[in-house]
């Protein structure tokens, strides 16, 4: 009866007011599923949510898509809570999470859980080729999260083949710096510069630095990074700062370090 009442509303165009307003359908199903989880089992709770997710029409930019996204968050949260408390397999959680992110690749709540389980010792460990394949280049936010997952694995020695990990990281950043929506993102460009500093020659580091300046010449962090990675180019970097009319504020101690 509840679904019959709300099904016609699912095709309504989504507005900002709708996105910011609690919805009875979502609230009721969330409460019911949590009650089932506490009193019965995780299977009954997740089955209830999945059943209603499958029933709701999920056309883009409609109220139905908002309901499905919010219910997917609840579904993933239930799997995540159950996995942590029972120390059971991450398989069902990972499968549900990947499916949800493939539908809503910009959902930060889902991406946060993905990053958590894929960097948790003993929890994640999905092969990188498989993890990357789940998210096409059209999902830049999801791929940015994957960049941090790979960086964490490299730093934590979770990736046995560091060259393979660097290869995936390089490809992810190359795609992100080529995408129209992300090619001028200072964060992504700094990540690319840091990777070049860790894996490339001085010539390539300098080329990456100039690529960063070409995209975002006003970002002072690029110049500070370049001073650390290319200390022999300090005079040239200072000239660039003067040319761009940028000012950096440093302490006398930091200035002495740079001069040395």
UniProtKB/TrEMBL annotation:
Assigned protein family: Belongs to the NRDE2 family.
Gene Ontology terms: biological process: negative regulation of RNA catabolic process; regulatory ncRNA-mediated heterochromatin formation
Location(s), subcellular: Nucleus
One GO term describing the cellular component: catalytic step 2 spliceosome
Main subcellular location of this protein, as a coarse class: nucleus
This protein's name: Uncharacterized protein
Record key words, sorted: Nucleus
């Amino acid at each position: 009866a509840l679904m019959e009442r709300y099904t016609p509303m699912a095709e309504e165009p989504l507005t900002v007011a709708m996105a910011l307003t609690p919805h009875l359908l979502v609230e009721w199903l969330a409460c019911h599923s949590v009650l089932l989880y506490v009193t019965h089992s995780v299977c009954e709770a997740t089955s209830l949510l999945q059943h209603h997710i499958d029933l709701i029409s999920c056309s883009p930019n409609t109220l139905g898509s908002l309901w499905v996204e919010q219910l997917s968050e609840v579904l993933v949260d239930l799997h995540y809570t159950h996995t942590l408390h029972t120390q059971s397999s991450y398989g069902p959680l990972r499968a549900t999470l990947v499916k949800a992110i493939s539908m809503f690749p910009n959902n930060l709540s889902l991406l946060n859980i993905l990053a958590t389980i894929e960097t948790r010792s003993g929890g994640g460990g999905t092969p990188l080729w498989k993890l990357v394949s789940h998210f096409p280049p059209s999902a830049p936010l999801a791929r940015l999260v994957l960049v941090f997952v790979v960086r964490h694995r490299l730093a934590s020695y979770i990736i046995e083949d560091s060259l393979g990990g660097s290869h995936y990281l390089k490809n992810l950043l190359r795609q992100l710096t080529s995408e129209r929506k992300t090619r001028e993102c200072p964060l992504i460009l700094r990540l690319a510069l840091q990777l070049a500093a860790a894996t490339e020659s001085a010539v390539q580091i300098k080329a990456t630095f100039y690529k960063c300046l070409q995209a975002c010449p006003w970002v002072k962090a690029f110049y500070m990074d370049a001073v650390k990675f290319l200390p022999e180019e300090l005079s040239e970097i200072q000239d660039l700062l003067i040319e761009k009319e940028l000012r950096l504020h440093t302490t006398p101690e930091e200035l002495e370090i740079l001069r040395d």
